[in-house]
TrEMBL record:
Gene Ontology biological process: calcium import into the mitochondrion; mitochondrial calcium ion homeostasis
Protein name, UniProt field: Calcium uptake protein 2, mitochondrial
PROSITE patterns in the cross-refs: EF_HAND_1 (PS00018), EF_HAND_2 (PS50222)
Keyword Cytoplasm included in the entry's annotation: no
GO terms assigned for molecular function: calcium ion binding
Length: 418
């Protein structure tokens, strides 16, 4: 009550002052404002020193608006988006040239905007793809006249890392009805199957849909014609896989040989370490500088044989266990024998000598095959070893499951009563 009495006293004093101000016309309009200001100040001071002293302070915090977290792209999806130069119906697509660059280069320096494709341009591309001739120049001939979706990009990566002994198995997995040919409908199962292999992770929490359905692409037009009613035979499929491997091998050889017909051994060593990110990389580079003599070259045929070897690393690892004791370093003779068992071919002495001098870290003329295999898998998978390997191996497992499922359903239908 004492406090309110003080407020009242202040009010009366101010009121008298305001009445005295009314006698001066210049202040007639100001007086009410002064009264209100003083009263408001008094009330606020009273609340601050008396009411708030008896009760704990409280605060009203405005909820901070947080932007929705953008899902992080997986390494392979990010790489696809970086190299894709074409957009159609708000979806990113690679051209055949983009795909070749994506497997040859570590990154792309894209300064131009991605091209927005029109329906007329798409139809022109597909017409050209449907008339393209098979061969090791297919992707280079098509250049920027083509459309490759993300799931097809993953499919092409499997071809580059697949041993040729597995080509027929791959075709059988696509041939759902077992009639020794693949139609467009069977091929389009790739999208659904690859979509099943994607797992929700921190990299890919949303697990988004992969590609826009119903968009025709270069591979579809090439395999099944412009209208999509052709059938893909095994021999055509096998040649496509062999030609693609050969085309990429030629492109990489020319890249590291600087366009020459032969590759220097130090250039070959640089190719071996390309895309690798191992703790011993500095040791390998030092070995290359000290141990590998200059002036000796590797032919494309020798380079190609080694590329085929890298596509058989799993078989090679099994062969190593057969010819040597567990976890023991591998000598040159044992290495050559394991390669012959795994691939049926032999690597040249020129290539083998380069490999041993590069990866022999302690100078005992032996290799730690576990470490060597780790580097070679990084090389074969072009820096996408973890995500791509798990996805692509899972992809083929899913294809096999779908094939078995289709076979069981067909068998069940054949046994059902009429």
């Amino acid at each position: 009550m004492t406090s309110w009495g003080r407020v009242g006293s202040v009010f009366r004093t101010v009121w008298r002052s305001s009445r005295s101000l009314k006698g001066f016309s210049p202040y007639g309009a100001v007086a009410p404002a002064i009264v209100g200001s003083v009263i408001g100040t008094g009330v606020m001071c009273y609340y601050q020193y008396h009411v708030s002293a008896r009760s704990p302070p409280f605060y009203v915090l405005a909820a901070e608006e947080k932007e929705a977290a953008t899902p992080q792209l997986s390494a392979r999806r990010l790489r696809f988006t970086q190299f894709a130069s074409v957009v159609y119906e708000d979806e990113h697509y690679m051209t055949p040239r983009d795909f070749l660059f994506s497997v040859m280069l570590e990154k792309v320096d894209r300064k131009l905007r991605k091209k927005i494709l029109t329906n007329q341009e798409l139809n022109t591309m597909l017409l050209r793809a449907s008339k393209a001739k098979a061969g090791k120049l297919l992707f280079r001939t098509l250049g920027d006249n083509g459309l490759i979706s993300y799931t097809e990009y993953l499919f092409l990566l499997t071809i580059l890392t697949k041993p040729r002994t597995g080509f027929h198995i791959a075709f059988k997995m696509l041939d759902v009805d077992g009639n020794e040919q693949v139609d467009k409908k069977e091929f389009l199962k790739l999208k659904k199957i690859i979509g099943k292999t994607r797992v929700r992770t921190k990299e890919n929490p949303e697990n988004p849909a992969e590609d826009t359905e119903g968009v025709n692409t270069t591979l579809q037009a090439y395999f099944f014609g412009r209208k999509g009613d052709n059938k893909l035979q095994y021999q055509e499929f096998r040649r496509f896989m062999e030609d693609l491997q050969l085309e990429v091998q030629e492109m990489e050889f020319l890249q590291f040989s600087k366009g020459m017909e032969t590759m220097r051994r130090e250039d070959f060593a640089e190719w071996l370490l390309h895309y690798t990110d191992e703790e011993n990389n500095e040791v390998y580079w030092e070995n290359m500088r000290k141990r590998i003599p200059s002036g000796q070259s590797i032919t494309f045929e020798e380079f190609q044989e080694f590329c085929l070897f890298t596509n058989n690393l799993d078989d090679f690892a099994f062969s190593v266990k057969m010819v040597t004791e567990a976890n023991r370093p591998v000598g040159l003779a044992q290495f050559k024998r394991a390669v012959r068992i795994a691939t049926g071919n032999e690597l040249s002495d020129n290539v083998l000598d380069t490999v041993f001098k590069l990866f022999d870290t302690d100078g005992d003329n032996c290799l730690s095959h576990k470490e060597f295999l780790g580097v070679m898998k990084d090389r074969a998978l072009r820096g996408l070893n973890v995500q791509t390997q798990s996805s692509l191996s899972g992809y083929w497992k899913c294809v096999k499951q779908e094939t078995l499922k289709g076979a069981k359903e067909a068998l069940g239908n054949s046994r059902s009563p009429l």
